[in-house]
Design goal:
The chain has about 350 residues and is mainly β. It folds into 3 domains: about 45 residues; about 180 residues, OB fold (Dihydrolipoamide Acetyltransferase, E2P); about 110 residues, Copper Amine Oxidase, Chain A, domain 1. It has 4 helices and 26 strands. It has a 7-stranded mixed sheet with strand order 4-7-5-1-2-3-6, with no helix packed on it. A 5-stranded antiparallel sheet has the order 18-19-20-21-22. A 4-stranded mixed sheet has the order 8-11-13-10, with no helix packed on it. β20 and β21 form a beta hairpin.
Length: about 350
């Protein structure tokens, strides 16, 4: 059988010795070939119009939102320990699927799906609000609002929903039914309005429209912030996660006595200059004539100005100016890496760690 004969209907193929039939078949095959070529041309043209993006099959996977208010990270639990800054909270050290370390703070307000007790070796996916400020520390520290332990046999959407129950990213609309379970993070029945709230939505099927419509199995209403968003600039919500007054400052593996670090209005960690610099062996002085702080007669800066002169006379901007607080000078933690050239200057596991040891990755 030839390749062309594969296109023939069985009734015609059986009579192929009849010349009239062969003529009809030939026209039929040619017509099919032309249609096939036209279809391929249309598909190629459509792909070109989309920027030559390859066609991909529809994936049957759980939803992980990328443009929503919340983002998700999958990781493996490495260590679980009490977190003294928040009552009944845990500090969970994890390793992400990319191999990077991170810490998450699991508080009584965190909704956990799966087993309630986190343990070393657990595979988790945690969802955090990307609109909330994040402190610039290493490893990064998150305060997730939802943690999923293990695998799920349902879809999960964590996002804010408007009064029409459409998600923040406009990709999902909720159609609440009498069978939908609606609870708070503590498991009690929630009887208030869902509009304007952050929700964790568990559902099975959804339409293919945009937004997709679904009748959720369960809706978990996430806690409201204690303070209105307009009032959060006072501390950017960070002091509720990290107790800066309790942080130890470790310089070259030695704990030093120093004024407490803090975060500025832009959520940058600020640390005391003199105590740390002198522990590193630098001489710190004030140049009255130039109105600037000087380290070892070379590194210099002016309080209130984001411009730092390095040993090589280069000017570096750190995104935050040095500040005076209680008659003491504070600089961004990055000052010791970017200006003084030390390998490490991080907020690490409840400590300010500054040294020139092995580079932390």
């Amino acid at each position: 059988m030839s390749e062309m004969e594969l296109f023939l209907p069985s009734t015609v193929y059986q009579d192929r010795n009849n010349k009239g039939v062969v003529s009809v078949v030939t026209r039929y095959v040619v017509s099919l070939a032309l249609v096939f070529i036209l279809v391929l041309s249309a598909v190629a043209s459509a792909a070109e119009d989309r920027g030559s993006a390859p066609l991909e099959p529809e994936k049957n996977e759980r939803e992980y939102q990328t443009d929503a208010m919340f983002s998700a990270i999958t990781a493996t639990v490495k260590k679980v320990s009490p977190y003294a800054a928040i009552e009944q909270a845990l500090l969970v050290s994890v390793e992400t699927v990319a191999g990077n370390p991170a810490n998450i703070v699991v508080s009584p307000d965190t909704y956990i799906i799966g087993q309630r007790e986190l343990a070393e070796g657990d595979k988790i996916t945690f969802y955090y609000d990307t609109t909330k400020p994040m402190i610039l520390i290493y490893p990064p520290q998150y305060a997730p609002e939802v943690v999923v332990v293990g695998e799920m046999d349902f879809n999960l959407k964590v996002d804010a929903f408007d009064k029409e129950l459409v998600s923040y990213d406009k990709m999902l609309k909720l159609n609440i039914s009498p069978d939908t379970e609606i609870i708070g993070v503590d498991g009690t029945v929630f009887e208030g309005s869902l509009g304007g709230r952050k929700l964790a939505v568990l559902y099975q099927a959804a339409t293919k429209s945009i937004p997709a419509h679904t009748v959720p199995l369960k809706v978990v209403v996430l806690p409201e912030p204690e303070k209105p968003a307009a009032d959060r600039n006072e501390d950017n919500g960070v002091s509720s996660i990290i107790d800066f007054a309790a942080l130890d400052v470790i310089v070259e593996n030695q704990k030093i006595k120093a004024p407490a670090p803090y975060t500025n209005e832009n959520n940058v960690v600020m640390v005391p200059l003199r105590a740390i610099s002198e522990a590193l062996g630098y001489d710190v002085s004030w140049n009255e004539e130039k109105n600037c702080v000087v380290l070892d007669n070379s590194v210099s800066f002016t309080p209130g100005v984001d411009n730092y002169k390095t040993f090589k006379a280069q000017l570096v901007k750190l995104g935050a100016a040095p500040e005076l607080k209680d008659s003491r000078t504070f600089v961004p933690l990055a000052f010791f890496r970017e200006v003084l050239g030390l390998n490490n200057a991080y907020l690490l596991e409840g400590q300010i760690v500054i040294d020139d040891g092995e580079l932390m990755n």
